[in-house]
Design a protein that fits this description.
327 residues, alpha+beta, six-stranded antiparallel beta sheet, 6 strands, 55% helix, globular, disordered N terminus
Length: 327
């Protein structure tokens, strides 16, 4: 890369709440207002980085940037970016030699989105429909108590699910990369040099995490569903699904506020449950995992020419870059 590891191309205050990411297979994806970068540790120990320009749909269609409405749209946009980054990381994490990402076929995309649809349907069944059935089987009749019990069961299911998958060795490693992502962003937000030594002191927990977002979804769903009363039929149960975009939009606004006012005494109690859940979904990373998170972050913060389209390269331990492909 042209910039040194210590170079920070933009003031953290100017990108407040605008840099984020997610853990992928053996790596980290980072996103800034102008770029997306996915860094992956390959089997031979090198870090492969793919960087693409990014222009959010809200920049192209500004009328969509409406509170609550934008939450659902942002979620769909982020899901598409995340799935693409996961597919790239899966290819790179098993490559024995340098590879350039092959263009995915129509069938690959059909399979990818088919998997998403199935996963979404299963999650709706487990976290929304099954708690309703259990609450009915318990014989809870009063509308308020029904929705309270339903919401508590949903949250218990969610926490139990996170705990169970954290016991899987592969998922635990993903959670370490999740911790590396958060620590890297903390270093950036605090104006530190983007090096392992400067990043190591920061925590793996972050108020703008997707885990915290999902907890807000569960909590807000409890409140919203309380206004719908007790569902008396299958149709009533499925009508609740129509409120999922509203719940997601409200959760998005909540997560934005919690990140912006994370040090406010009034906001801290609302952030705390999500941070506690992150103790499951984030784990302290090794230095080589932190290097991957920092490589992705440096990539999205480095400026590019106006005609930049895409670049894939290997970042060495001395932060030099060995290009693979560039368009």
């Amino acid at each position: 890369m042209s910039d040194s590891p210590e170079t920070k191309s933009e003031d953290p205050r100017e990108l407040d709440l605008a840099v984020g990411g997610q853990a992928v297979i053996e790596g980290v994806m980072m996103r800034s207002p102008n770029a997306i970068a996915t860094a992956v540790r390959t089997p031979d120990g090198r870090i492969v980085v793919r960087k693409k320009p990014f222009r959010s749909i809200f920049k192209r269609l500004r009328f969509l940037n409406v509170p609550v409405l934008r939450g659902g749209i942002h979620l769909i946009e982020s899901m598409g970016i995340g799935i693409e980054s996961l597919m790239f990381s899966a290819d790179q994490a098993v490559a024995e030699d340098r590879i350039v990402e092959e263009k995915k076929s129509l069938w690959d995309h059909v399979m990818m989105w088919g998997t998403i649809v199935v996963a979404f349907a299963l999650s709706m069944g487990l976290f929304f429909y099954l708690p309703l059935l259990i609450t009915e089987w318990m014989g809870v009749e009063h509308s308020v108590w029904f929705n309270l019990v339903d919401g508590v069961i949903r949250i218990v299911f969610f926490v139990a699910y996170l705990k169970l998958i954290s016991l899987m060795k592969d998922m635990n490693r993903v959670f370490q990369f999740h911790g590396a992502e958060h620590m890297s962003i903390h270093a950036f937000e605090n104006g530190k040099d983007l090096t392992v030594a400067e990043t190591r002191p920061f925590p793996t927990l972050h108020p703008r995490c997707g885990t915290s977002f999902l907890f807000f979804v569960m909590l807000i769903a409890l409140v919203v569903f309380s206004f719908l009363g007790k569902p008396e039929s299958v149709v009533d149960r499925f009508q609740r699904l129509a409120f999922i975009p509203v719940i997601g939009g409200l959760a998005y606004e909540a997560i934005k506020l919690s990140g912006k006012f994370k040090n406010s005494w009034g906001i801290k109690p609302l952030i705390w449950p999500g941070l506690m859940l992150q103790k499951i979904t984030t784990q302290p990373p090794e230095d080589d995992q932190l290097e991957v998170g920092l490589a992705a972050l440096r990539a999205v913060l480095s400026p590019e020419a106006d005609d930049f389209k895409e670049r894939t390269y290997y970042e060495m331990t001395d932060s030099s870059a060995e290009p693979i492909s560039e368009v």
